[in-house]
Amino acid sequence: MANATFYIIKPDTPQETPEGFGLYVIFLAHHFAKQGAKVYLNCNDKLHAEQLAELLWQVEPEQFVAHNLVGEGPKYGTNIEIGHQGLKPSWNRQLVINLAENETTFANKFAEVVDFVPCEEKAKQLARERYKIYRQAGYQLQTIEIEHR
């Protein structure tokens, strides 16, 4: 059975800021990739994907994990692939970290979905809609409150 995990971002935590959230996404991507998962980062658009790719290049050398944008890199991709709506991820991806606000049509291609519930009310409502869509698609759902790191 497919799983969807929503990470809840609490107010007044580092993850509430764009910089802190980006670092947390990188932490999660590295965590899953180091466990052997082929991770797909689903962004809002091309600019968002490129910004995230740049952020992945800025980690400390000992924390670096190979990554590529969809269509770039080796034939079977690296452990972390970055794309956006309208692009097709490599066939061998098991886990998607969804960073897009209202896109869920990709989800049925993955055994594991990671999504987020932001603090801002409009974004929180969009997360609720995605949650309902995953539930209707038969995903096993869970929520996790992000611990301050």
TrEMBL record:
Pfam families: DNA_pol3_chi. It comes from the Bacteria. InterPro entries: DNA_pol3_chi, PolIII_chi_sf. GO terms for biological process: DNA replication; positive regulation of DNA-templated DNA replication initiation. SUPFAM superfamilies: DNA polymerase III chi subunit. Signal peptide: none annotated. PANTHER family: DNA POLYMERASE III SUBUNIT CHI (PTHR38767). This is DNA polymerase III subunit chi. It comes from Vibrio paucivorans. The lineage of its organism: Bacteria, Pseudomonadati, Pseudomonadota, Gammaproteobacteria, Vibrionales.
